[in-house]
Every structure is written in structure tokens, then in C-alpha cells.
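[SOLVED] Need 3D model of a two-part complex

Original post:
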Amino acid sequence: MAIKKIDPMAQLMPGTGDMSAEQFRALGYQYVDWVSHYLETVGEKPVLSQVKPGWVKSQLPSSPPQDPESLSQAIDDLDRIITPANTHWNHPGFFAYFSITGSTPGILGELVSAAYNVNGMLWKTSPACTELEEVVLDWLKQMLGLPRDWFGLVNDTASVASLCAIAAARESLDLKIREEGMAGRTDLPALCLYTSEHSHSSIEKGAIVLGIGQKNVRKIAVDAEFKMRADALESAILEDLAAGRRPFCVCATVGTTSTTSVDPVPAIADICERYHLWLHVDAAYAGSAAVLPEFRYILDGCDRADSFITNPHKWMFTPVDFSAFYTRHPEILRRAFTLVPEYLRTDQGEEVRDLMNYGVSMGRRFRALKFWFVVRAFGVAGIQARLREHIRLAKRLAGWIDAHPDFERLAPTPFSTVCFRAHPKGVDDESKLEALNEQLLERVNATGRAFLSHTKLGGRFTIRWAIGNLRTDEARVEETWKILEDSLQEIHQGRKV
Amino acid sequence: MAIKKIDPMAQLMPGTGDMSAEQFRALGYQYVDWVSHYLETVGEKPVLSQVKPGWVKSQLPSSPPQDPESLSQAIDDLDRIITPANTHWNHPGFFAYFSITGSTPGILGELVSAAYNVNGMLWKTSPACTELEEVVLDWLKQMLGLPRDWFGLVNDTASVASLCAIAAARESLDLKIREEGMAGRTDLPALCLYTSEHSHSSIEKGAIVLGIGQKNVRKIAVDAEFKMRADALESAILEDLAAGRRPFCVCATVGTTSTTSVDPVPAIADICERYHLWLHVDAAYAGSAAVLPEFRYILDGCDRADSFITNPHKWMFTPVDFSAFYTRHPEILRRAFTLVPEYLRTDQGEEVRDLMNYGVSMGRRFRALKFWFVVRAFGVAGIQARLREHIRLAKRLAGWIDAHPDFERLAPTPFSTVCFRAHPKGVDDESKLEALNEQLLERVNATGRAFLSHTKLGGRFTIRWAIGNLRTDEARVEETWKILEDSLQEIHQGRKV
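Solution:
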């Protein structure tokens, strides 16, 4: 694309200033054009970056520039260095991990957020940041059918939000861990946390960081559909109690990372109530699906959770990062995290919430803006229509797999993520199947037209195909399926030669 | 400003799409115009928001819209609801806490980052995100004179980065805390962390989260210039050792929050080496000043630190959030945080760094872009010129205070933050002085022309005036000083009446 050059030295005003308004507008239009062009053409680029390790570094100056450079020039570098070295998460053929979207309303929200550049640590440091966060998190509760009286705030990621939840669970024990710590005490039992063997690694990481220890994380077995077995959960709790350890927290998942399975939250909530354990629900991916009335049931029992997270930056078209965190015990969460030095004391007192007191980070970006823009620009109906379409596409794909003699599905497909593998007739050796599917995956990803990822299910190498990008349409799904079929064919023929 | 309306229903393409390129361009230009206008006029708005708690909520719909709304309409809401309810951190009269800037190059960087919307958790999920981060953090090392062989990565905030540092320090003890946790063990001593009574609250918060406990955080006394006393540090360590506790980490500060004092890092490093303690240096604010050769000395001894943080989002014109974290022990940091589930295994192995393994968050935004844009657009010389100007303005201000019979400085002014109070002749009662200065601060902030914050120094209520925004010029500083003088005068006259 043609770029109007701006004199690099003229960009910056003398003295203490930044760009002039006129200069910013001219440059801003160029960048809007660049974004527009990028989004329009991203589907033609290789999804998975094909650069070698070290290539980006080799393209960039080893030292910072002494004098100002033109940001028009930087556009060329985006096209020449950054774009080819990106794996394109905003690409319609991105089917790896969980497929996400930085939608245009969300992009504009981030633009505004960067311009305001507030730190919403206290209510008074940006009443708009604090209150808009409260409003949009209340909207989200309504969209998903969550209890209206829950307290909510936004974290960057589910990893951090789950750590905060487990920290609150630990604080709820009233064992003076905040005051006295955990090391060197003879009055503390080992603390045990329960989660399924299919929960996200961030749960275990949270337990490591919080000093719970990996050996006190019980990875509860799953059933044939990869859902946590409530009976196994209860057995594990009883075993720990008998051994004098202290169960304190259960992390259930609505939409596990590998297969998007939904743990039996009502049965788990019963157990948590029976043994007085904190119930945390990680609905980072699948929570969004509850915006559909026909999927509302996936959150059954979640109203009994002590804490709950879902990530609009996964399947609700909001640019990373935006993880919604809810709890019905804000005072416990606050106790786990609050520290107000003199330099942050305010007059507002109990009248307002200072959100820095409810998590690790003191600094808080104005993240609510982008989600506000997304919900307004799509409307609830627009979000619903798009989620339904993703689920429909996944269902079609599952049908093709089921009907194909050389492919098989390896897990149910409750949402828009399909777990499967090639399994040609006569090939039953597991190590051969693993090698075959690894080769197949690599071949598909090497085309640049699609990017799929993998997992293991019951020891079997499994291809994961996650649908969730706004630009993914039926034609793209069909094309990728054709690539998979053809690639398998080619591998077969290669072998025969 | 005049806004061209776009048909709300036409904004969204039917089916699974987002906006068309043309629609995005039209809307994007409107938003660039809005940002440009905002930045041009922000100095005329009240710095500290004057809305009452609950006002923002009262202005917004209590439920999410069912149907799409126009994002042209949303611009009106920014002007009507969000802007008046914001405290304007990008305002030239923002002198509270630490004054920061979301500069225009940084804003454009965030725009591009949102458009790419990558998650740089693994090298392969965005080689550009991982490698550009490495490159710009290497540039920053050169700019500040830090050891080139340190490993670096970007965190959102210093709070999270310091938590990561303390977690690495804990892991370095080889006490199997990762594996076995800390509770219910009889083989662990209490772990003690040392930091000055003037260090940032995030250090103590990190210790709380990590299960160290508040009572094991030793707040070391400071000298008359608010610097940690190395002798007091060593005494505290010896006392803990004698009592059978285990000292493990010292957090020194280069630029404390209240007074920007610089702890004696060389002496502290000596002590850390003597007792084999992890030395973490929090240079979140003042680290940037080392970009000036004449201020390079503030980092003396920091080359001996085990971990080090500085925040370009504080005093290097980068929009929040961007906290640079360095350590010379990447393998220990990795051991504290790595967990690689099957679904995230890659073929690159040791050839690349997967940055999710070095911190709490698995998800990682493409933050390097905005800092890259800032350094390129300003150049090192441009950043130096602006920091020098801020320091010059603070020095002038300190001079006015020192020369005024009714004001006094309460701390040295090593950088661009001035601590002072009104102290009229004859008023020597501390509670009267506190009431007077609170009233003065409130009066100044109520003008809307400037926003200053406070702290306490040796029990004395202290007004903090931090200079750090790009738009702050000499005229603004003079005006604010005049407002202070006049306000003090008015308070006096009010009393006399």
C-alpha cells in the first residue's frame, strides 16, 4: 500500500511536547488504513509463522536509535518484519488452542483506552474506569444468567484470576496465613486443592505460586467424557481428611482446554458444601456459550460457586486481555489482597470500591472500554448469532469426521472445538498412529492455510480444531477439511512409493 | 466536534463477519479524530474527576443492548459520560502519584497490538512478539547501562513483576516449595524478606500472596534522606538468623514512591552476598532516569542484583501496561513458574524461549510494539531531552519552595518529584499543619487545573508534586505554583474573617 511519508524530525514538537494534533491525525489515518488492510488480507497470509528462531532479531537494529525515526517508516517494518513473523490469531484459519478475535469494535476500544491512559487503581484515579467495569460486568452477568449480586472485576488473564481465587480460598480458612505466612509454622496442616486431570495448567501454577505445592494438588480422574468424577473427588477429600490434611478448594472447569468438557458442577457444589470447601469455577472458554439460551444449562450449579471466571477475550470478540472474575465473597478477596499505604489513602472510604484492593496488580488498565464497545457494536443478538454459527460449523465438521472411514472423533463436541485423529483402517498400533497424526498436523499447518494444535487424550495423540474467529466461515472450514483429507492421502501415497 | 453518523445496522456484516474494511476505515478516522481532539484539549478539562460516586452507573443502561448500536454514537458517550468521569492521567496538570504519559507513538503501538491480537505465550504462537520483546528489552538495557547478559521479559505491572522476583528468590532456596508447598511441613524455617519502610506496598503484597506472611517482612528503617539503612538491614538479618529464621530476599528501591529516594544498593549488595540473599531492585519509577549519563550513577550496584524491574509506562512515555523485568537467573525464574501441558508442547525445544514459562500469566499481550514505537519516535536523545526538562522543572519548583517563607521541602528532590508542605511562620502544631495542608491540597485539586497527591514523612502530612507528563511545560508549573500560593493566602484570609 502507498504510504505518505512524514518528515521524521517534524513529527515531534520541540520542547516537552508530543506530536501536534495535525501530525497525529495524519499518522493515525495511516495506521487505521494499515489495520484495515491487515484485517482485510490476513486470511491470505500463512497462519502459523514460518520464520526460523532468531530471524526477527536479525532484522532489527541491535541498538536503539539515537535520533527520532518516522513512524511512517515503522509501518514498512510491520509489513516486512513483524507480520511475517507473527502467527495470526486474527486469521480465519486459526483453529489452534482456542480461536479468538480482536474484533474491530474491540480494537477501537483499545485505541481509546491507550489515549486516556488511566490507571484505575482507585475509584478517584478514574471513576469511569471503576464504574464502567462494574456496569459491563453486570451486563455480562445478565448475558450469562449469573447471580446479579456477585462482585466482579476484570483481570488480565484467567491465570491471574484463578490465582486470586485460590488466594481468597486460602484466606477464607482464617489460618492467619496473610499475617504469619506458611513456612516455619507447626500449627498448619497441609492444604489440599482438587481439580480434574483435565483442568488448565494455571490452576496448578496458582497452587505452586501460593505455596500450596504440587503434591497437594489432587488431579481427580475424569469419566469417559473427560468430566471430573464427583465420586473420585469425594474419595480424595476423605482420604486427605483421614490423613490429617486440610482440603480447602475445588476448581471445576466449564469447558476444559483439551476437549471443552463440562465438569458436573452441581454434584461438585454439593460436595463443596458438605466439606466446607471453596468452589472456584473456571469457565474461561465455554462461559461465553451461556449467552445462548439453549446453552444456559452449562452453568447449572455455578450460582453456588464461591468464585467464577470467564474470558470475553476468548470467545466474545474482545482483544486480549480481558478476564472477568466474580465472587460472592468480595470481603474475603479484599482481605487476601488489600494494603493501602498512606500515599493511596482517599476520602471516599466505604462509599466506593478501590479495585487495586482485590488482586495482585496495583496498576489497572481501562479494559472495560473495549468490552463495552464489543457488546454495543454486536448487540447481544449479534454475539449470539456468531456463537451459534461457530457451533454449527463445528457440528458439521464433527459430522464429516464421523462419516469418514479414516478419521475418528476422540471426544464429544459440546461447543465449537473438535478433537479427532486420522485412524486409517488396519493401522492400530498407537505409536504408528501418533507418528501419522503428528505428520498430518505438521503437513496441514505447513500449508499456511490453517493452524490446528494437538493434545493427548487417554495417551492418544489428538488433533484439536477450535472454531472461534469472526472471520471463519463455512468455506474456510470446508477448505481446511479438504486439506486434511488430501494431506492424509499424500502421506499414504508417500508411504506406498 | 462534528461526527459523521454511520447507520448502526450497516456497521456489521451479515453472517460471521465483522465490519467491512471501508466501514472500519471511516469509523477509525473518526476515532483518530476523537483521540487527537482529546489530547489537544485535555489540558482544559478538570484533571481530577469531579463526579460523585455512582454517577457513571446512573448514566448507563442497566442492561446490555439486544441489537447493534453505532460506535459513532459511542463517541458521544465518551464525551458525555466517560471523559467527565475520568481523572486525566494524560493531562499536563496531572502531578499526583507518578505522572505518566500515553504518548502518541505508544497509542499507535497499542492500536497495532490490538489488531494483531496475538497471544505470545509460546515462541511459535508469535515469534515476533517474543523476539521483539527481547530486542527492545536489550535496547532498554543499553539505554540504562544494565548488564547485557541479563534475561528480560515484560510484565503488566511492577506488582506482578516483584511477585515473580520474590517467587524466584523463594525457589532459589531449594526447599522443595514448588513440589511440597509450605504448609504442614516441619522442616521449613520461617522465611524472611527485607525491604525499607519506604518501599512500595507491592513488595509486602507479594510476600502475602507467596505465603511468606506480613510478620516476616522486615521494614528496615531509613536515614534522614529516606534511604534504607544498610546497618539496620544487617542487624535485622543477624537477629533473624539467631532466632533460627531464614533470610532469603532483600528488595531495594531506586526511587521510592513517597520521596523517590535511592537505597544504597552497593552496600545492600555487599550484605546480600555476605548472607547469600536474593537481591531484587525495584526501580519502577526512577530507573528511567539512568537514560541520562549524569544520572547513570543511580543504578550503581544494580549490576549485582539478582532481579531488577523498571517501568517504561511510568517515565518513558509508554502507555500502561509495560513493566520490564530482568534477572540473571532465568533458570531459577523458570523453575518457579514453568508448567507445560501436552496441549502446549512444541518442537522448538531449547532453541527458543517460551515466555509463558517465566511468570504467572499464560496469556501474553504484544506489549513490545508500543515501546518499540516510543523509542523510535523519540529516539534516545528525545527521551533524554524530555527527562532533563522534567528534572529542570522540578528543580525550579524546589527553588521556589525553598525561597518561600510559608512553604518548606520535606525531602530531597533527586528526580522530578517534590515533597513539601505549607508551613507558615508561627504555626508549629503538627495537627494544625496537617489540617492546613489537607485543606490546601483539596483546594488546589478542586480548581481542576492540577492534581497533586500526598504522603506522610516522619508523621508529617506531605504534598507530593510529581512531574512526568509530556504535555507539562513551564507555564503549567508556574500556574500551579501560583494556585498553591493563592490558595494558601485564601485559607489564611478565611481564617482571619
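Edit: The first strand of chain A starts at residue 151 and ends at 155.
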